[in-house]
Design brief:
Number of domains: 3
CATH class of the largest domain: Alpha Beta
Largest sheet: 9 strands, mixed
Structural class: alpha+beta
CATH architecture of the largest domain: 2-Layer Sandwich
Number of strands: 26
Strand content: 15-25%
CATH superfamily of the largest domain: MutL, C-terminal domain, regulatory subdomain
Shape: elongated
Number of helices: 21
CATH topology of the largest domain: Ribosomal Protein S8, Chain: A, domain 1
Distance between the termini: 91 Å
Amino acid sequence: MYALQMQVRRLDPILIDRIAAGEVVERPASAVKELVENALDAGATRVEVVIEAGGRQLIRVVDDGRGMGPEDLELAVERHATSKIPDGDLSNISTLGFRGEALPSIASVSRLDIISRPFGGDVGYAIRVEEGRKRPLAPAAAAQGTRIEARDLFAATPARLKFLKSDRAEAQAVADVVKRLAMAHPQVRFALSGDNLAGFEYAACPPARDGVLARVSQVLGDEFRANALEVDAEREGFRLHGFAGLPTYSRANALAQYLFVNGRPVRDKLLHGAVRAAYMDYLPNGRHPALALFLTCDPRAVDINVHPAKAEVRFRDSGLVRGLIVGALKQTLAEGSRRATSEGGANAANIFARRAYESRPTGGWDWTASPAAPLSHPAETSGFAENAQARFEAAPPMADARPHAAPIASIDIESPLGAARAQIHDTYIVSQTRDGFVIVDQHAAHERIVYERLKRQRAEAGVERQLQLIPVVVELDAADVDRLLENAVALADLGLVIEPFGPGAVAVSEAPTLLAKTDLPKMVRDIADTLADTGSATPLEKKLDHILATMACHHSVRAGRRLTGEEMNALLREMEATPGSGQCNHGRPTYIEMKLSDVERLFGRS
């Protein structure tokens, strides 16, 4: 059976526009993005966006930009007509939008009304395009700038409506688009309103660094400002600046990552991959940093036309860009991540206040009962009877305040982490600072210190190791033995020399000097589990970091070990000198800090 030969014919212009709209206008948020970008390219200082029904019924964008005269307005709704490529050089695009298809594409799937008045013009002009058909131009009263309304989006293509999400979901997508564009242009005032969303208004911010931080804080909140590190680096014509959140200020998804190239919001795999690589040492799987990074370069060094919605870009030297981002972020984190998130102290204060409130009886406080006093058995008499006193003597002390007996050195009290004053539950160090106190998780803190020390040894001259007088034999499953022997060379670089020792066992002949007192069999088994988890596809560098983290965990000061005052202060001073000591290898904070003012508020003294 022969297939019927189809006749080749020209498509209807309106159908062509609707096909183009499928690439450019995927959903209401896509239309909003195109319209707001046009306003920004027109030099607007104020942009107002209004939507209804998630943008399906109405999208209105009003700006105070340069506006358009009658000739430009009539051409603006024609396909492949644009003012953004003045010299025709596609390799030198300095505007946000340039395809020349946005307005006609939106007009082909909606009822589009445009009113515009150019700078210095006495009167504005209006034009309507309905289902791709252009109406005659007409004079109209208008302020300087442009007002665009797109109504009944996708009414002419009902199949597209079926693929839209709920009004609330579409409205949130619009809000995300406006927020990203607002973050890239802090000197512009932005306002968004409509149903199914919480509207916002961002005032214009000052130029330079302060303006960027102010706008980022408007979008991400003041908490981000308190937990942000400034990033500023330059290499071979590329400049990276912005703000990166502390590792302990992480999120369960990557929605709080804002990346920009020459003022254009992008969702690029190369850039997101570079961010993951930079934070690899600080965050566990499943946690993502919050940041806003701006990359600027010569427009000729980047191709912004590789994606219909301009969401992805392609660099001529992608290796240079990746290296710049990874290097700049790693240096910033190494210098600034001795801090822990400011959320720790705030959360602690909230917990204390909540528990104090919840424990208050309805009829008022019972001052005769102390919440800290041990509960008495009904058969026991009150007071220091023999049975009650025996219980005090048998129980181990829950706090060691020996450091408190020694005078505080002025150099310690002025240090960022203060002077050790006590150890609680043989796990937490309490230190006093000049204006508050700090609680340190001794195991988590020492784990990061050992990890960074092992990394430094590996980078400089290899991890220092010592010979075992008697090789330590470790019995394992055959699969674990194979994994260890496959990685024997890499393990030797980390100071751990293993050899086969018959079926189902390996012998450890050398171990890192730093881990001399470690339980080697348990550590080797954990390394085997780490190799199984990372898999063969994991890059060697990442695999080695996982192994080092496992080693560091085994050598760290364990919870339950009692420390002397000198040991506590030594740990605090080493934390202050160690990069990344504000969080452990699993991304959790190693300490929390509370200011004296926070404590006074808990007691109603301020």
